[in-house]
Design goal:
Shape: globular
Structural class: mainly beta
Radius of gyration: 14 Å
Mean pLDDT: 85
Order of helices and strands: EEEEEEEEEE
Strand content: over 45%
Number of strands: 10
Helix content: under 10%
Largest sheet: 5 strands, antiparallel
Low-confidence stretches: none
CATH topology: Jelly Rolls
Distance between the termini: 7 Å
Number of helices: 0
CATH class: Mainly Beta
């Protein structure tokens, strides 16, 4: 896994009201998520877990009363993982950022991978069409 990378997906929600999680890896085998629309009926987006708190409880959470994931509309989501922190973009707009050394970050129990260098996607109670998923290396191995 690169020390710094971009993880970019293009997805469309086909049904339901729940969101999607981009499961991420950071330094020292840290694991965490970028949570897009999974709480409050598709109205929040943020990084978690931070100090064991979900994205909806974090100061970096972004809110959108109209929803982040409209039905049947492709949405481009990009997370930039850097040594000094994270940035989350939806359709090229910065919606969330968090400065961290990753020691305060952890995944939800159900999203923990056996290897800390694994990335992925997760959904619940909604169906998604995944148009593309890319891992783009910015700097070399950890």
């Amino acid at each position: 896994m690169p020390a710094e990378y971009d993880y970019k997906i293009v997805v469309a929600r086909l049904d339901g009201v729940d969101g999607i999680w981009m499961l991420l890896a950071g330094p020292n085998n840290s694991q965490f998520e970028f949570d897009i629309g999974s709480v409050m009926g598709d109205q929040t987006v943020g990084f978690g877990l931070i100090n064991f708190q979900g994205a909806e409880n974090c100061s970096d959470v972004a809110r959108n009363n109209k929803g982040w994931l409209p039905l049947n509309v492709p949405v481009t989501i990009l997370v930039k993982v850097r040594k000094g922190g994270l940035q989350g973009y939806i359709n090229d707009k910065l919606v969330c950022h968090y400065k961290t050394d990753y020691s305060d970050m952890s995944p939800y129990t159900g999203f923990r991978f056996p290897k800390g260098s694994t990335i992925g996607l997760a959904t619940t109670d909604s169906s998604f069409q995944i148009h593309s998923a890319q891992l783009i290396e910015v700097t070399g191995d950890k």
